[in-house]
C-alpha cells in the first residue's frame, strides 16, 4: 500500500533541501492542472513525446516550471528533449551523452544533467555500471564539458533499497557531486534518510496510473 501524499502539504512536510519532483507520466490533464494549482512546479516525465503533450502549452502559462527527464532517452529524441526539459536525469551511455552535448551546443541550452547508475547491476535496467562510473563521469565532464550535477538511480524492486541508497550517497560524495535523485512513492523517506536531494513521486501524489 502506498500512503497518499497531500500535494498541498507535502512541501511543508519535507526537509527544505529536498526537491520534490511530481512524476506526471500517464496522468490525465485534470490531475496535472490540479497539481499546478496546488503550487507544484517541478515535474518528471519518462517519455519525450508524452512530455511534449503534457507540457509544451503549459510551459507558456507557467514561467517557473522545471521539467525533469527521468526516463531513457533515444538518440532521435535528443533535439526535442533539449528544447523542452530543464534537466536530464538519465545520462546512461556514451552515445547519448555525446548526442546531448552536441545538441546543447547547437541550441545553446546547457542543461544540468544527472548520470543514471545501474546500482543493482540489473541487466534489464539502464544506467552506468558502478565500476565504470568514474571514467564515464570524466568523459562527460572533461571531454564533453557537460554540466553533471549529480547521480540518479532506481534500486531493484522488492528488495530493501537502503543499501543501494547508501551506496549511491557514497558514489555521489566520492565524485564531489551535490545532487542525488533517488526515492519514489514507496521509499522516499528512506531515500531522504540516506541522502537524497531529489525525490521522484508519482503514485503517492496523483494516485494509480
Ligand atoms: C514512474 C517513475 C517514478 C515514480 O514512481 P511512483 O512509484 O509512482 O512514485 C519515479 N522515477 C522514475 C524513473 C519513474 O519512471
Name the structural class. alpha/beta
Give the termini separation. Answer: 14 Å
Mean pLDDT: 95
Strand order of the largest sheet: 7-6-5-4-3-2-1-8
Number of helices: 9
Elements, N to C (H/E): HEHEHEHEHEHEHEHEH
Shape: globular
Give the oligomeric state.
single chain
The unique ligands bound to this protein are:
pyridoxal-5'-phosphate
How would you describe the overall organization of this protein?
This protein is an alpha/beta fold and about 210 residues long. Helix content is about 40%, strand content about 15%. The chain contains nine helices and eight strands. The protein has helices at about 5-15, 30-35, 50-60, 80-85, 95-105, 135-145, 160-175, 190-195, 205, and strands spanning about 20-25, 40-45, 65-70, 85-90, 115, 150-155, 180, 200. It has an eight-stranded parallel sheet. α7 (about 160-175) links the parallel β6 (about 150-155) and β7. α4 (about 80-85) crosses α5 (about 95-105). The model has no long low-confidence stretch (mean pLDDT about 95). It binds pyridoxal-5'-phosphate (PLP). Pyridoxal-5'-phosphate binds next to β8 and α9.
Topology:
Layout: H1 7-13, E1 19-23, H2 29-37, E2 42-45, H3 48-61, E3 66-69, H4 78-84, E4 87-91, H5 94-107, E5 113-117, H6 133-143, E6 148-153, H7 162-174, E7 179-181, H8 188-193, E8 198-201, H9 203-206
Parallel strand pairs: 1-2, 1-8, 2-3, 3-4, 4-5, 5-6, 6-7
Helix pairs in contact: 4-5
The structure holds pyridoxal-5'-phosphate.
Amino acid at each position: 500500500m502506498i500512503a497518499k501524499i497531500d500535494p498541498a502539504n507535502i512541501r511543508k512536510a519535507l526537509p527544505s533541501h529536498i526537491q520534490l519532483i511530481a512524476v506526471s507520466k500517464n496522468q490525465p490533464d485534470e490531475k496535472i492542472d490540479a497539481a499546478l494549482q496546488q503550487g507544484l512546479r517541478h515535474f518528471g516525465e519518462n517519455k519525450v513525446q508524452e512530455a511534449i503533450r503534457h507540457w509544451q502549452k503549459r510551459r507558456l502559462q507557467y514561467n517557473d516550471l522545471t521539467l525533469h527527464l527521468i526516463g531513457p532517452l533515444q538518440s532521435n529524441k535528443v533535439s526535442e528533449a533539449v528544447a523542452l526539459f530543464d534537466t536530464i536525469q538519465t545520462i546512461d551511455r556514451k552515445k547519448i551523452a555525446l548526442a546531448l552535448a552536441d545538441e546543447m551546443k547547437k541550441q545553446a541550452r546547457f542543461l544540468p544533467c544527472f548520470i543514471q547508475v545501474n546500482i543493482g547491476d540489473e541487466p534489464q535496467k539502464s544506467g552506468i555500471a558502478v565500476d565504470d562510473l568514474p571514467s564515464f563521469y570524466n568523459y562527460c565532464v572533461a571531454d564533453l564539458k557537460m554540466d553533471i550535477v549529480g547521480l540518479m538511480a532506481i534500486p531493484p524492486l522488492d528488495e530493501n533499497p537502503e543499501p543501494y541508497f547508501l551506496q549511491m550517497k557514497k558514489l555521489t560524495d566520492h565524485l564531489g557531486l551535490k545532487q542525488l535523485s533517488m526515492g519514489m512513492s514507496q521509499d522516499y523517506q528512506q531515500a531522504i534518510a540516506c541522502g537524497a536531494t531529489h525525490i521522484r513521486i508519482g503514485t503517492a501524489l496523483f494516485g494509480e496510473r
